[in-house]
Structure formats: C-alpha cells, structure tokens
From TrEMBL:
SUPFAM superfamilies per record: GroES-like, NAD(P)-binding Rossmann-fold domains
A molecular-function term among this protein's GO annotations: alcohol dehydrogenase (NAD+) activity
Origin species: Neonectria punicea
Protein name: alcohol dehydrogenase
Similarity section: Belongs to the zinc-containing alcohol dehydrogenase family.
Length: 352
C-alpha cells in the first residue's frame, strides 16, 4: 500500500458570493468512513459551473461552495468502510456526488433522480480544489493508462451526451442532429454518435466551430448565424429529407428547443440536455400527437453509464478537444465562456 503525504492546507477556487470566484487557501478535509480523498490533478470546466457561479438555476446552492465536477486524480486516503478502491488508484469526481442507494430510483439504477442526491460543486464542494472528498460508491473508476487531463471532460460532458444518445433510441445508421455541437458537450456528442453507428448532423454558429465539428466526424455542419432556414437545412441533410431520427439539444438558449419540433422526423425523439436559465419549452400538441414526437429530458448517467462512457475513451473512440489553464485562471475561463468564445473545453491543472 502506498502512503501519501497530505498537506493541511490547499489551494481552491471558492464561490463566496454570486458572480465571482476567489482563489484562496483552505484546509484539507479528511475522508469519512465511506469516503475517499482524491488529489485532483485536472478538472474540466463545464457550463454548469457557470450556472453555479451565477446562481441562476431554480436549485438551492451551497454558499460558500467550491465548484467543479469533472475532477480526475489519485486516491490518497480512504475511510475504513472503503474496500473496493486502493490508495494510488485513479478516480474521478462527477456531478452526482452521492445518493441514498436505497430508494425506488436508486435500486433501479436511476440514482440521479434520488430525492437525497448531492451534487458536486453545487450542493457539496467539488473539484476546483487540490484535495477533494468524495463518496466512494459514486466516484468514477479510471483505468491507470488514462491521461488524467484528457479523461476529465468525460466525467460530465462525455457521460451526459453518451446517456442522451442512449435514451434517444437511435439505431445504427440513423441520424441525430446535435444542437450546440461546437461546445464541449457537442464535440464529444459527435464522437459518441459516430462510435455508436449514428450519423451526426452538427448545428452551431461560426466557421471555427464548423471546422472543428467536421474534423471530429460530423456529416454536415449547419451554421445558424448564416443559415436562412435552419429547418429546411437540417431536413436536407437527412435521408429522404424527412429530418433526423433524434435531436440532442445542448444549447444554452431556448430558441433551438422551439425549432427542433419543426425538423425532427415523425416518430423521432427530442432529447433535452441543455438547461438555459429561465428557459421554457413549448411543444405544439397537434404535432406531438399526429407525428408521434417523443420529447425526453436526459440528466447525467448512472454508475454503469459512467463505466461505459469511459470505456469508449479507453478504446480511443472519443477524445475531448481541450485546452489547459491553471486553477488560478478559472475566472478568465468563465469570462470566455460567457462570451461564447470557447471551442471544445478548458481543463484546469489543479495539482502537479
């Protein structure tokens, strides 16, 4: 068994008031009986972290709170009840920090729906710190051959879109429109769709995002900033012009949600993943009934979904295009995110 020297203090990014994050030193916590302490090496920055910063979701946030929920690192301490993780193992912190594991949702592998679920970087402290405590039952198991910087975005962005594609019901050979394809989730959604045998149609704004989407395997790129008719363009990119079998909505505004019902194929599925602050989704009842349209919400995946999403990464089927920034540069990353200037994802280097 490996012994690690664990400091008493560490650097962290702490949200002490809405809208700003403070880079400061804080104490290092020790894990409880069913917890592990992870020395976070890298942590991805997700759009959800921006919502946590701004406090603009109808969900109570812990304050102060340490954000972050794509943390990949090394287990350096564990509680007495933890028997299936060893010191030195790689592990990841996800959005779902914990659930009760006993309710009707948990026993059906629907842990994200648990009434007692705790959320990393929102209701409990997350991965924008050098040493993070996590529930052993819920941490992601990361194989040792993985590059921790590269795997970090899989822990939320990858897992979220993989789950959405699973629930879409699209069969191999079917088409899926990915709205917000140029962002961190969208870049991964294109790759997972390809790996699952689907035909991804990328929708986003700007030539840079278009090139990135095509390089990752999109069959078509539709630029909403230049398209004169989004609905017609999406339909034209599909077989028989009938529209895609599914739409994966990753957008941070609600207008694309209203457009999707117009171009999805009859008997198709609209999967809502993006959560625009204050957004609403109105579905024409006539279309939903007569065209047999399915509208689904898809939240984060369960523990099995996590293992599968990571396995695609290990096999080389997906990779997250990312840039590395320092932990102390988090506010600058948020500023770029607000300005919609990020292609792919930023990953923070948290510890050496």
């Amino acid at each position: 068994m490996v012994d690690f020297e664990i400091p008493t203090e560490q650097w962290a990014q702490v949200i002490e008031q809405t809208g700003t994050t403070t880079y400061k030193k804080i104490p290092v916590r020790q894990p409880g009986p069913d917890e592990v302490l992870i020395n976070i090496k890298y942590s991805g920055v997700c759009h959800t972290d921006l919502h946590a910063l701004n406090g603009d979701w109808p969900l109570e946030r812990k304050t102060p709170v340490i954000g972050g929920h794509e943390g990949a690192g090394v287990v350096v301490a564990k509680g007495e009840y933890v028997t299936d993780i060893e010191l030195g193992d790689y592990a990841g912190i996800k959005w779902l920090h914990s659930s009760c594991l006993a309710c009707s949702f948990c026993i059906q592998s629907l842990e994200p729906l648990c009434d007692h679920a705790q959320l990393s970087g929102y209701t409990v402290d997350g991965s924008f710190q050098q040493y993070a405590v996590a529930k052993a039952a819920h941490v992601a198991r990361i194989p040792k051959q993985c590059d921790l910087a590269a795997v970090a975005p899989i822990l939320c962005a990858g897992l979220t879109v993989y789950k959405g594609l699973k629930v879409s019901g699209v069969q191999p050979g079917g088409s899926v429109a990915i709205v917000g394809a140029g962002g961190g989730l969208g870049n991964l959604a294109i790759q997972y769709a390809k790996a699952m045998g689907m035909n991804p149609i990328a929708i986003d704004g700007g030539a840079d995002k278009g090139q990135a989407c095509m390089d990752l395997g999109a069959s078509t790129y539709i630029d909403f900033t230049t398209s004169r008719n989004i609905v017609a363009d999406v339909k034209a990119a599909t077989s028989e012009g009938r529209g895609p079998h599914a739409v994966l909505l990753l957008a941070a505004s609600d207008r694309p949600f209203q457009q999707a019902i117009q171009y999805v194929r009859s008997n198709g599925t609209i999967v809502c993943i993006g959560m625009p602050a204050g957004g609403n989704y109105q579905v024409p009842v006539f279309d939903a009934v007569v065209r047999c349209i399915n509208v689904k919400g898809s939240y984060v995946g369960n523990r099995q979904d996590t293992a599968e999403a990571i396995d695609f990464f290990v096999q080389g089927s997906v990779k997250a295009p990312f840039k590395v920034a320092k932990l102390e540069e988090l506010q600058s990353v948020f500023d770029m995110m607000k300005a919609n200037k990020i292609v792919g994802r930023y990953v923070l280097k948290v510890s050496d």
